[in-house]
Structures are given as C-alpha cells and as structure tokens.
Please model this.
Amino acid sequence: MADVAKRAGVTKQTVSNVVRGRSVVGPETRARVEAAIEALGYTPNLVARGLATGTTMTVGFIVPTVANPFYSEVVEEVETLLEERGYHLLLATTRGDQARARRHLATLSDRSVDALLVAGDTNLDLAEMPSPLGKASLPLVLCAWEIDPPATLPVVTIDYEKAGYLAGRHLRDLGHRNAVVIADLPAHRIRVDGLRRAFAEDGIELPAETVFTAPSATPQSGYEAAVRTLRDLHPLGRTTAVFTSTDAIALGVMEVVRHYGLRVPEDVSVIGIDDIPQAAHAHPSLSTVALPKRRMAQEATGLLIRAITEGQPVAPVLTLLVPEVLRRASTAQSSA
Amino acid sequence: MADVAKRAGVTKQTVSNVVRGRSVVGPETRARVEAAIEALGYTPNLVARGLATGTTMTVGFIVPTVANPFYSEVVEEVETLLEERGYHLLLATTRGDQARARRHLATLSDRSVDALLVAGDTNLDLAEMPSPLGKASLPLVLCAWEIDPPATLPVVTIDYEKAGYLAGRHLRDLGHRNAVVIADLPAHRIRVDGLRRAFAEDGIELPAETVFTAPSATPQSGYEAAVRTLRDLHPLGRTTAVFTSTDAIALGVMEVVRHYGLRVPEDVSVIGIDDIPQAAHAHPSLSTVALPKRRMAQEATGLLIRAITEGQPVAPVLTLLVPEVLRRASTAQSSA
DNA sequence: CTGAAAGCGCTAACAC
DNA sequence: GTGTTAGCGCTTTCAG
Model:
C-alpha cells in the first residue's frame, strides 16, 4: 500500500480512500492511484483491515452436518446471501458432538467472525456452552432449533409441531384412521406430537405400539431402520397410512411397502416431512410437509447482517416459520 | 492482553508465551498469568495474531455446490481434517458460475486464508482466473478435477475414466453386450469414454443412439431427465444393462425400469458411479463404482497443510485416486 | 480534498 | 526466564 501511495505520489490514506470507493478523492488523483494499484497488482490485506476496523466480513455457521439435504440446502442459501452482501462463510460442523460444538463456539467468538449462526442440534446443550451465548459479545442467532428454543436468544426456526400437525390433518382429511409412525426419536418427537394432535381432534388416538423409532440421527440409517421396522411389522394389518418424520425415511418406506406387493397410495398412503429434492422425483412422488429452509436462511442471515451493520445485539425474538403441505401422489383417500 | 499482563505483573510477551503454550515460562509465572486470564476472561484476538504472524489458520474451499452428496461429503471430510489440525474452513460455492468463482478466488487470496482448495467445476476456466493461480502467491490445490487437470498446478483427483472403465468391465464380465448409457454430458464424458474403452476391449461398440444425455448439472434434474429418456426409449429392446454416469441417475432409472414391469437385475442390470449413501440402501442395492472422496479430501488437505507449515508452494503433481467397483444387487449375469 | 500521526492486538526480535 | 522495542497493513483521528 505504501508502494502504491509512493508511486501515485499520495499517502496511504488516499489509497485507502480510493480502494474503499469513498467519494472524497479527486478524479484525477483517483485515476493516478488506480493506475498505480493496477501496475503493482496491489490487493488490500483484509486481515490488517480487520484489525483496524474490528470487522472481518465473515460470519460463522455452526451446523450439525452438511451431509444431510436439509442442512446442506440451508448452508448453501446462507452462503449465497452472505456473498451477496460481501460476507464470507466460515463453516463448522459439530457432527452431534458437544465438545466440538463448544470448541467451535469458543474459537469463533475470538473476534474472527462478525457474527455467529448456530443451527439446531439435538445434542447441543446451550446451558453448557461457553461465553458468547452468555455475554452476547457478538451477534448470535440460532436457527432450525427443533427442541426447546431458548427464550433468551434470537431464534429463527420452523414450526415443527405444525409440520406434524399438517401431515396428520392431511391424512385425517383423506379418511385415514389407522396410521403407523416411523420417526427419528427423540429428535423428532415434536413432529410426532403434532401428528398426534391432528388425530386427537378427531378423537383418534395413536397407540404406542404403532409408533416406531428409527434410532439414528442420520437420515440414511433412519431409512435403513425404517426398512427393518416395516419388514418386522409386516403384515401392516389395518394400517392405511404411514407417517414418517423425514422424507428420507418415507422414501425407504415406499420401497419396502412395494416390496410386499402393496401399492402406494392405493393400499397405503405415505407422507414425510421436509421436501427434500428427491421427494418430488420419487415414484409415486412423495406427499410431504415442506419445511421453509430457504426462508429460514433468509430471515436468519438478515437478522445477523442487520445486527452487524447496526452494531446492536439481536433482540431475543422467536421467529417461527410455517411449513406447508405438499399433496403429491403418495397419499390418497383411505380405502378402509 | 495488556490488562492480563498488568494483573499478573508481567509483560504482554509473557502472556503471549503462556497463551501459546511455549515452554519458556516459569511454572510460577505461568500460574499467575493463567489466573489473570481466567479472572479477566481474556481470549486472544485471532485477527491481531493473524496480522502479526501472517497466518490466519483458515483454509478456503471453493466448491461448485454443497447440495450434492459428492461435494457435501468432501466438504465435511475436509472440514473435519482441518479442524483436527486447528484450521478453520472458509467455504465458497460457485454454483457453476464463472464470475462467482473468479470473485471468490480474488477475495480469498487477499491473505485472508492460508491456503486454497478448489474443487472441480466444469464451468471453471482456469485460464480466465486471476492472480493466485498464476503467481501461486498462496498454496493452492485443485481436487475433483474431472476434465483436463492442469499440469501447472497440484491436483488431487480421481481417475474418472477408470471409473467408467471399471463399470464397463463389470457389465462386460457379466456378459452384457447391449448397454444403454445415460450420462450428464458433457460434464461426465470422461466416464463414458472409460465405459467405451472397456466394451471396445471385447470388440463391442457403443452406438451413438444408445447414449443419452441427462442435460443438467444437478443430479436431481439428471435423474428426472433420465426418467423421461427411458420412458421415451421404451421398450428397451435388446438392452440388458444401463450404465449411468451418476448414482442419482441410476436410482431414477431403477424406478422407471420397475415401472415398466421389468425387474432389476433379472431383466436389466443397472450400474452407477459415485457410491452415494442411498446407493447401498436402494432396493435392490445399487452396484456402482465408488469414488474415493474421503481419500481425496485427505490427500488434498494433507498437501495444503504441509505447504502451509513448510512455507513452500505445493509441487504441481497430479495425484490420481483409483475408484473401485462395488458389486451389489442391481447387476447380474446377462440373460441375453 | 489531502497529509501526518497514532494505534487496532498481537508477535518477533533482541537485550536484560 | 523476562522485559523492551518494533513492527504486521490498514484505518482513523485530526490538521493542513
């Protein structure tokens, strides 16, 4: 920078002003400086700028995993939004590991990021988490917080209970009274609660023996477990519908159902939650409750950036995004 | 830091030494300093350290997208490896957009990262890319470079041609002579070339009219296109096997084949490439050629970190990882 | 509109 | 072992 200044016959200050596009530089001077920059191939050092301004133009995002369509879509959207505003994305994954989450939280809050976004993770116990959560030293927003969103922090999440409820109402409206549930419990218990509420409105109970657990956090093994569960369960008896807490599981269920020579949706309706890309392309296309991930990413990033630019902590409000039923081909009127 | 030093009755330097775990501090002094750090809740400013040392402990990763199982697995692996060594991951996606890629390359090379990893993207024209590629100012490694890996840069990639070849040999060994190809062209043409080579070894040609294009970059629309293609194509005629350039497409193909009342693998064998998580859980489980993504991530990260710690640019060597056939249930002896 | 000074928080040389 | 002195490259006062 000093070289550029010398070459253009100005001071570093003027170079700085030119680089940052401030309109305090005379056009003639500006041209000279720009020529010098070009000639020397100068490029400003962001770290130094960061030290001077106390801002890094970087947002940290702590996420359970990225090998899961739900989170990877959220990450991608967040990255895009940040990029549009000139921010970088520092990605950290927890993989369901408290210790990792804590480490990330600690290192990222050392002023190496301007703000922090943390996606929900069942294994995350906020009370155990270090400083930034407590002293709110830097803007912090939580998202996709399925279980017990804390009231003391800003949270942008989805009404997962309603997602379950909507799935339930959809099935109920189609006349289904005997449903089997396959859910990733306890992570997705809220979704099952919603389903239960929908059925309860019609006086239908969900017997405990029709609720099965896909005992793993990853959608893949959830799927696998679902397959096994359903296999053991067979014959389905009076069951006319299967509700799964996740599309990945639903996809597996459809395969197994077909494997038994039953048809979806003629014999059994299947509905999932999330609306992963494959859901629309399955055969039959999977009815599901779409979780507004992109909306969530937008709201969360918006809060974060506003907090950074205004220099104020984010108000601890809970934003609850509403999911939406997607009626596709895997659900039909109950044949019972 | 000054406060800590004052409280402990030492200088900043000593505090620095304690923080960085240097063994030049007396145990008694160290204890005092640590107490002061604890009391004041001091946490070092990484940006300042970065300015002083010229190192940020951050590696940039430019990737086409993260909403694709292949890349998301690579990203996750890279992140994990970096974290183990105390590095952070700055993630940037190109979404197949040259301009974005160029922007990222430019901003990331402003010394805000210690090294740069760039994953292959058909839309990326390296010749058009700015400085860091040319002047190799900071360690740069390319990975997953399917088309024309440049000889002037270090590249860790997979032998995609061999992947196609292995798939072809597998089919050929099972007696298949009439295969249909559905590939994401031109992105995956190398894979088709490999297949062609395998068949050619037996004097079998792949007529142009049996090669179909799934005309999109994203696996999902590839899948969709495959479905349409196969639907139009029906009946399959003498075809006994389908090769797809991607597992996602293969999964779609299996559904469509079944849709016609044909059985996999009894009537038609299906083989893909990649080994995405779902492949193992499909019904029947999908035979495929596994691409060693994790190995690739390991090699690439290794090179990068070595380059950083040794302060030397990475030698422009091409590392070609070998894929492996996974014989599963979707392929069987040809019935023809 | 431009220039000169001071300092962001830390580390790296030295000397003590 | 510990303290001292300079910066890292930039931005930000404040004068000119």
Observations:
- Residues 10-14, 17, 24-26, 29, 48, 50-54, 111 of chain A lie near DNA strand C (CB under 10 Å from a C1').
